[in-house]
Design brief:
Elements: E1 12-18, H1 20-23, H2 34-50, E2 54-60, H3 63-73, H4 82-108, E3 113-115, E4 123-125, E5 128-131, H5 135-142, E6 146-150, E7 152-156, E8 160-164, H6 166-177, E9 181-186, E10 191-192, E11 201-202, E12 204-205, H7 210-213, H8 228-242, E13 247-252, H9 258-263, E14 270-272
Length: about 270
């Protein structure tokens, strides 16, 4: 069992992402999986109560909310025309609608949360974050509140506007906040060794493994404008190169209790490390 490492204030900081495939039906527009969201919220609440030292930055994907409208309007590629900007606003509305559902459920189980929408605070340059005032988010963490970020539209100095995934947000946050682990909970039990047969999981991946894996890592089958599993693995390995002590776990959050056990320091699925 791997234990979560300490952060600056003696607390344990972990980033947890709830994938869109886990919390929505990605093949049906604007379809939240409310039973799953409620169960996960309770697992997070139980973990925090069991381990008062635990600090979490929670992120979530947009699933069948933002991804479908994002694909329809091509928003991630850029926003230039008046019609594009109408699409940009539509994607914002869809992403924020799912976030409101998540926030309401977290509040209902007694988790003190604050949402930090990237659209209101982040500026990117060709999808690289160049400005994000993290003082409010850091203040929330210091005071025992749970910050929530999510895949969202942002203004971009090259593309006009774009969409940033939760993983891309986590990369920027990780460099600033230095979490011990990043936990990516989705529908898949990990990274498949033999996609599309899907009979064997990779237990661990390092940066050295990536060239041989690129043709085997599965793309997303549902609409996913930010790249699916292949992009997730690539982004996390690049981050681990910057932060060699960081561990990332890609696992399924579908089985009750798994998210709670991983938050408590156990491993599951596929572990990415230096």
């Amino acid at each position: 069992m791997n234990q979560i490492g300490p952060t600056h204030s003696g607390k344990s900081l972990v980033f947890l992402k709830l994938g869109g495939s886990l919390i929505t039906d990605k093949n049906t527009s604007r379809s939240p999986c409310l039973k799953v969201i409620n169960r996960i919220a309770q697992e997070i609440a139980d973990s925090v109560r069991e381990n008062p030292q635990l600090r979490i930055v929670l992120g979530h994907g947009s699933g069948s909310f933002g991804h479908m409208s994002g694909k329809k309007h091509g928003t991630r590629e850029g926003v230039k025309t008046s019609q594009d900007w109408l699409g940009f606003a539509e994607v914002w509305h869809d992403a924020s609608s799912l976030n409101r559902i998540i926030m309401d459920v977290l509040q209902s189980v007694g988790i003190p949360t604050l949402a930090f929408p990237p659209s209101a605070a982040v500026i990117s340059q060709d999808r690289e974050i160049t400005a994000w005032n993290l003082n409010p988010l850091q203040s929330a963490l210091r005071r025992g509140l749970l910050p929530v970020v999510f895949g969202d539209v942002v203004f971009d100095t090259v593309r006009g506007g774009t969409i940033l995934s939760t993983e891309e947000l986590f990369v920027y946050l990780a460099v600033q906040l230095n979490p011990a682990r990043i936990l990516l909970a989705g529908q898949d039990p990990g990274v498949w060794k033999d996609y599309p047969n899907c009979t064997s999981l990779l237990k661990e991946i390092t940066s050295a493994d990536l060239p041989s894996l690129q043709e085997k890592i599965r793309p997303s089958e549902a609409p996913d404008v930010t790249g699916g599993m292949e992009e997730k693995v690539k982004i996390m390995l690049q981050l681990i190169n910057q932060l060699p002590n960081l561990e990332t776990i890609i696992f399924s959050g579908e089985d009750p209790g798994t998210i709670q056990s991983v938050l408590n320091g156990e491993t599951a699925g596929t572990v990415l490390h230096s």
